[in-house]
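Query structure, 346 tokens:
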């Protein structure tokens, strides 16, 4: 029993125990409402659950990045129980939609079989057309979220950053198409960004980021000291773009069309870019008449690099000046918040 001066603690285990919950969902349902930190320690094992963290100050701590695995298999092209198509948002394995939460030492996986689905004949009734399958979603109410020593695994749309400020430290994030995307303000510090090998079912062409940063936001997706590497040596050279500008279709008073205010911002600083990287790319959207239009990386986005290295860096344009790069720091990007792993509390 926790007294009023103690933080709340719970444990989840695959092994039956009177001192542990049998599922993460049950532990989350017991989250207190008094504002004190609630830490859920999750024992080793694979937990087939799809979860929502909607209380502030909730902290999920696994037994190790390769030992505690949270896995779900939803995909945007599936039908839900009511017969409606699941959206990209609702394909997530885990959503954090609260403030001051953290994830540590675990894997979050969307286990939708992207490779197996692509290998099915085009006329197969079981083939899914929309293959967005989110592992982690940071929702609109998510702020000051810290993710450390976590693996995020998927193929298309692995990480969806919609919230305010989030900090990823020494994480592994893998995917093939727009696998880090959204309009949130996120820092990736000393992470491994892993391009998946899809050569068995299609030509390996991928996109690392698809930011939709609003024009009134100075910063979007910022990578410090990260390694952009390949899952397999089979992935060819110049097959992955660092990013493309996502202008999501949005409902306005005069119609529904690609958001002109979503001028995405992605910046890589002091990162290693392996030879699969070829620079930046364009992305399509819909105009007010529903016709396809294209958004260019040089005029419809804010894409930049600074002091990156590797074969991919040599062929990637849009390099910041020293003066412009000096504006990029964790303190500047996260005004009013320093992640605990940086201030000595963690």
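Result returned for the query:
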């Amino acid at each position: 029993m926790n007294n009023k001066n103690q933080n709340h603690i719970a444990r989840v285990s695959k092994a039956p125990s009177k001192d542990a919950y049998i599922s993460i969902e049950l532990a989350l349902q017991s989250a207190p409402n008094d504002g004190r930190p609630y830490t859920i320690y999750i024992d080793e094992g694979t937990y087939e659950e799809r979860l929502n963290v909607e209380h502030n100050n909730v902290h999920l701590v696994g037994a190790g990045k390769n030992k505690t695995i949270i896995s779900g298999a939803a995909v945007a092209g599936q039908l839900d129980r009511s017969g409606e198509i699941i959206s990209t948002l609702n394909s997530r394995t885990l959503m954090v939609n609260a403030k001051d939460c953290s994830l540590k030492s675990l894997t979050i996986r969307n286990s939708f079989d992207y490779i197996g689905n692509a290998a099915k004949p085009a006329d197969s009734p079981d083939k899914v057309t929309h293959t967005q399958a989110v592992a982690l979603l940071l929702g609109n109410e998510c702020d000051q979220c810290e993710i450390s020593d976590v693996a995020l695994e998927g193929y298309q749309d692995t990480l969806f950053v919609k919230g305010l400020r989030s900090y990823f430290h020494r994480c592994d994030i893998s995917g093939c198409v727009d696998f880090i995307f959204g309009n949130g303000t996120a820092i990736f510090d000393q992470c491994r960004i892993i391009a998946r090998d899809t050569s068995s079912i299609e030509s390996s062409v991928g996109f690392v980021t698809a930011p939709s940063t609003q024009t009134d936001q100075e910063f979007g997706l910022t990578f410090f000291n990260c390694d952009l590497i390949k899952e397999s040596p089979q992935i060819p050279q110049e097959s992955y773009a660092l990013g493309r500008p996502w202008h999501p279709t949005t409902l306005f008073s005069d119609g529904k069309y690609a958001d002109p205010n979503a001028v995405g911002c992605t910046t890589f600083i002091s990162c290693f870019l392996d030879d699969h990287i070829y620079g930046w790319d364009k992305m399509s959207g819909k105009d007010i008449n529903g016709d396809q239009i294209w958004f260019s990386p040089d005029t419809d986005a804010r894409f930049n690099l600074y002091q990156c290295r590797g074969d991919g860096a040599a062929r990637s344009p849009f390099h910041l000046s020293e003066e412009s790069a000096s504006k990029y720091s964790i303190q500047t990007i996260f005004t009013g918040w320093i992640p605990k792993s940086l201030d000595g509390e963690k």
